[in-house]
Request: fold
Amino acid sequence: MKIILFDLDGTLIDSTPAILESFHVAFESFDTPIPNDEEIKKLIGLPLDIMFEKLGIDSEKKWAYVDAYKKHYRPISKAKTSLLPFAKDAVLEASKIATLGIVTTKTARYSEELMEHFGLLEYFEVLIGREDVTHPKPHPEPILKALYKLNYKNHKAYMIGDTCLDCISAKEAGITPIAVHSGYGDKIDLHNCSNIVLENALEAVRFIKTK
Reply:
């Protein structure tokens, strides 16, 4: 049996409106100038604390910004997040050929709530979020933890994601990365990070079916 791990943002879901709004609120909460939306979007996929640091927030203040972000994000997340085109089909098709997991830098609790909201949580055997690891992607720890929970023993295993963070993490964990163009990763960068680059998660699953 194969193992397929999915990233969330930009791979299965589009939560851009919720993310941007929550960043705006966090910066407004501390009377800090709001960064350009494109600056924020380029960082999606990184943990929130690192995103705030890269957006100019001092390390000693970043957790207050993260808390303000999360306080706003949670109540709006379901209404302002949607499944990407073909995402549901990708999960359903993948479930027929593989054991499935999610590896994300989002908070696991929020991720589980979103997947349940979309009726897809039942298809995943494991979900690894930011609070489940010490070292998030691109470190291999999140993927290695997911594989351990899935009792990985030399099965064919794949990580489908939209950024180089996903691809590097997969390579370091010893599994095959598949990059997709559906999210936030720069297309040129993705081709440098993975030998397999496809349009979306469904194409990635169909590729895996042939292996």
Q: What stands out?
A: The radius of gyration is 16 Å. DSSP finds ten helices and eight strands in the chain. The CA atoms of residues 35 and 56 lie 9 Å apart.
